[in-house]
Amino acid sequence: MTEPMHPDQLELSPELAAQLVTQLLPGTDPATIRLLPSSATTSTVVRIGEDLAARFPLQPTDPDAARSALASELEAMGEFAAVSPLPAPEPVALAEPSAAFPMPWSVQTWIPGEVADPLAIAGSDAAADDLAALLLALRAAPTRGRRFRGPGRGGELTAHEDWVRECLERSRDLLPVGPLADRWERWRGLPRRALDVMSHRDLIPANLLTAEGRVVGVLDAGGYGPADPALDLVGAWHLLDAARREQLRKRLGCSDLEWERGAAWAFVQAIGLVWYYERTNWTMAELGRSTLARLLEDPAVG
Hints:
Elements: H1 14-24, E1 33-35, E2 43-48, E3 52-57, H2 63-83, E4 91-95, E5 105-109, E6 114-115, H3 125-140, H4 161-170, H5 177-187, E7 197-199, E8 208-211, E9 214-218, E10 225-227, H6 234-239, H7 242-252, H8 256-270, H9 273-277, H10 282-297
Antiparallel strand pairs: 1-2, 2-3, 3-5, 4-5, 6-8, 7-10, 8-9
Helix pairs in contact: 3-7, 4-5, 8-10
């Protein structure tokens, strides 16, 4: 049995998934409902036929608060899908907690494609252009007066100081902590000058779909909202080699400061992946390693 990623992780069997889905969506053929292997860290993904998917939370929290948050996420998904130049899931249904499963869960449309590999499309000019087109479209979308609201990434880098320090300490036997700590000392003090723009806020490979060297879909847009324009640049270090990162940077017209803040956000995201998932989620741990290696090797952000 695979070791759980979280100490309080909820279990979802194929039989229970089929029971819950058919109760919510009468007429669904149970034979078309199956759990999908995934590197997702917050949800168990269940495929429903050819057109739908359900996401069940992996960890228990307060059900009422979780339902409110999930309703907001579904609203954000719909807003994102309306402006994204790439296909993205749209909300279908929100299921209530029950005796069988104690948390609310959601159903959304299914987008075909392969989950992006952090190395496979690194040298793809087309993928860099696809990512640039996505970011340009999001930056052009109206914020409607909204501003970043935490928690999470997208506000001030210094808000993550304690987390980064903990991750560096826990990574001493896993990563080159000295050079990484030196980079953080530089990045943590980078000033914030740009206004918020609309952002996906979690452009890791697991949330991007590819086919034939192109980016063909975007997943998990429930966090879509205003944030530091540099935040979505994390996708450049997660996915692209140095030449393709420079290609994307030119398309976006990033200043030196914005580009380096993007590197800092990629670091904040990647530094916790190795030690936390080393034994439970190989894909996420390897993403942390590859992203941190790119950050250390890139003279433009050193």
